[in-house]
Amino acid sequence: MDDESTHEPTLEDFALAISLLVRRIRADAPPELREFSWTQKAVLTRLEKEGAMTSADLARAERIKPQSMSSAIASLVTMGLIERHAHPTDGRQMLIKLSAKGTKLRRTTREAKHAWLAQAITRLNKQEQALLFKAGALIARMVEDERD
């Protein structure tokens, strides 16, 4: 078996580590959230972070077809997790926002994810923690740069 200190990490190692982290975080999601599609989760997260948006703005932000976004929105409205409201300045458009139930679900989900992650990070020393947070910022920048 290779000594970990002499093994040069590869792109495959990095991708596997990210995949394992995502899988582990998903395992702590509330059971009802595990049944949601990627698009539904993305809508809830984006609305929590950015506030009310139009369906078209959500589709653009998530880089999916408007029809796919409409389907995700319809199902989330049916579940009572988001609400549609008239746009204050453009009567032709509807704004989509989190409902109280959707806000509660996002908070519960975030708390579950953060609880495990915070506990896992405490197993690292201070230097490793600092490096991990820097890597997180770089990963976020990589993903956002791709979206632009």
Automatic annotation (TrEMBL):
PANTHER family, per the entry: CONSERVED PROTEIN, HTH-TYPE TRANSCRIPTIONAL REGULATOR RV0880
InterPro entries: HTH-type_Bedaq_tolerance, HTH_MarR-typ, Tscrpt_reg_MarR-type_CS, WH-like_DNA-bd_sf, WH_DNA-bd_sf
Molecular functions per Gene Ontology: DNA binding; DNA-binding transcription factor activity
Keywords: DNA-binding, Transcription, Transcription regulation
Transmembrane segments: none
Protein name: MarR family transcriptional regulator
Protein source organism: Pararobbsia silviterrae
Coiled-coil regions listed: none
Pfam families documented for this protein: MarR
Residue ranges of every copy of the HTH marR-type domain listed in the record: 11-141
